[in-house]
Amino acid sequence: MSSxxxxxxxxxxxxxxxxxxxxxxxxxxxxxxxxxxxxxQLSSHIEEEVKVIREGNPxxxxxxxxxRAVSPEPLIPISKLDCVDVVEINAHCRxxxxxxxxxxxxxxxxPERLHEFISHVVKKGRSKVSVKVRANVPGVNDLEIxxxxxxxxxxxxxxxxxxSGYNTADYELVRSIRxxxxxFIIGNNSIVDLESARNMLAAGADGISIARAAMSGILKFDxxxx
Length: 226
Description:
TIM Barrel; seven-stranded parallel sheet; single chain; 18% strand; 7 strands; alpha/beta; 8 helices
């Protein structure tokens, strides 16, 4: 994917503690193998993955690691790895097993807890910090969450601007967050071509992220054309 103009690659999401890993094993039983990973193997696995990325590749972008955990402490060792540029706190995953365990999207239900979680990683870690959140979760004030992320000292707000019932991102919400904060916004959701990428940037995002559209390793458009 390096030839398409990306400047950051995110590995994960990974479960960084035993509680979230156990939730992942429950998810595995219903056919989601990407959640099956032992926290004790995480550091060595990440180092091997980054080695694959860096060796023989002229791409010199940032490497981010998306991590799920119930408390911030398990993220600190990953943040201190020399090969990791950004630790991304997962406040995004909505699988019931993860939410019920107290990680992922559940962090959005308590902005004070989220603020404390992020602040701990910012203060104790070495890398930059990103926070990935899901938008339009019932009962969650998106602007309050965005301000909590910014006030905690995070470097990036990575927002999955999903809008229930629509095949496009919630650009109006991204615009509202842009007007309410100064944090670097990474916009995500339904970016499948140059038009949707430009719409996200026009809404106020500083950057964009692509997941499903890039899973084949081939894009139908080039980000350098933005």
